[in-house]
Specification:
It is built from 18 helices and 16 strands. It is an alpha/beta fold. Helix 8 packs antiparallel against helix 9 (about 175-185). Strand 5 and strand 6 form a beta hairpin. The strands form four sheets. The protein has a five-stranded parallel sheet, sandwiched between helices. A five-stranded mixed sheet has the order 12-13-16-14-15, with helices on both faces. The chain is flat. It has four domains: about 15-90, Rossmann fold (3-Layer(aba) Sandwich); about 130-185; about 195-310, Tetrapyrrole methylase, N-terminal domain (Cobalt-precorrin-4 Transmethylase, domain 1), CATH 3.40.1010.10; about 315-444, Methyltransferase, Cobalt-precorrin-4 Transmethylase, Domain 2, CATH 3.30.950. The structure holds S-adenosylmethionine.
Amino acid sequence: MSLIPLMLDPKEREVLVVGETDAALRRLAQVRRWSARVRHAQNPTPSELAEAALVFVATEDDDRNAALAAHLRARGVPVHVHDRPDLGTVAMPAVVERGDVLVAISTRGSAPVLARRLKEKIDQLMPARLGSLTRLLDGFRDSVRAVLPGFEPRRRFWESIVDGPAGAAALAGNEAKARELVVAALNGRGARHNAGIVHLIGGGPGDPELLTLKAHRVLQDADVILHDELITPAILQRVRQDATRIDVGKRKGRHAMPQAEVNALMVRLARDGKRVARLKGGDPFVFGRGGEELEHLRAAGIDVQVVPGVTAAAGCAASAGFPLTHRDIASTLTLVTGHGKNGEPAADWRALAATGGTLAIYMGLTHAAVIARSLREAGMSADTPVAIIVNGTRDDERVAAGTLGSLPRLAAGEGGKGPALIVIGDVVRLAPAWSEIERLEAAS
Ligand SMILES: C[S@@+](CC[C@H](N)C(=O)[O-])C[C@H]1O[C@@H](n2cnc3c(N)ncnc32)[C@H](O)[C@@H]1O
């Protein structure tokens, strides 16, 4: 069987759905989303059938379905029979829609499950706001044709809009800015329109499946990717493979590129018209210097957008199997850095000990002894449960659990194995690793 792909506009004719089954009702609801010219007909007359633009057949009776299909085929009326592609003359594709953009997937009716899986994948790849982008392009069609009558210049213009900051603004939901950028480009004030853009992207704690759909899409579009050493090879496999990659976390041996150099590089690349992905571990705005980079880029007049990521606390807790808050156990969650601007942590330990909630301490392993002592001096009990999660969400994740009293010893054992998060609070008791500790304590 060979199929010809096409999209149907029934115009003044009707689409009929024949049958009383659930499949018929689902089909009716589906087709109504696309066209008002659809009618549910339990017992259509021969003339209703002959005049239909298309008939969906889904009655309970297989023989009736076959007879209706034969009748329609003989009269040249396109027909679709539920679950019997061999009887019909049309196949219904799986569909992914974003506004006016419609992607249809067909396996000639032979593998609907495969079509659904493909649909899920395409659905993940298609930006949620593609509809805004098509609206934007449609709205400017006449003006662009008037300003650029030639086909080639017009094509290049549209490419630069779709691939440039105007397209990015539309996909980010900022339609006003997108329109402003198209108008500027049309008026020849195209300096900004040729300029690049920087996305500050959160890559999550390591598991590539924790990348957001948005991060994934932007990483597929980027010309240059500047990434930290926290970004795992598994995540780098998901970025556009011909993009230039710069590891700003490990230049010159083990030393990271100084922040001022990273800032200057991002500005230079964006001014060269590049789409720059600044890919950071976790979330860019949680101890990730995303705030500093944002300020710098804004001050330099560079377009910048932020794509949040799963921060280490969320990823590690999920992976280690305990919640960060709990209605009966912890009503606050405080994210703390264990590495102050000048090294030693500079936190208000008394205030932290007084929350009674959960503390998630980033970059705290080196100073774990100071942290434990300071919290105990501030009144926190030495029995407070503690977990250290190293390489959270990655294949080599390790979870060590103990108490505030044993934190210095635990931390000494976990040092140098990878990024580590310390979580302090009663929620840790809900971790599977905690029941093992209680079992061992009970046995000793
Ligand atoms: C510079 S901070 C960046 C935090 C990141 N922006 C975030 O939102 O997760 C680096 C620290 O985050 C924590 N971290 C990041 N990824 C981690 C992981 N996979 N497992 C455990 N801790 C992690 C560690 O405390 C590490 O020292």
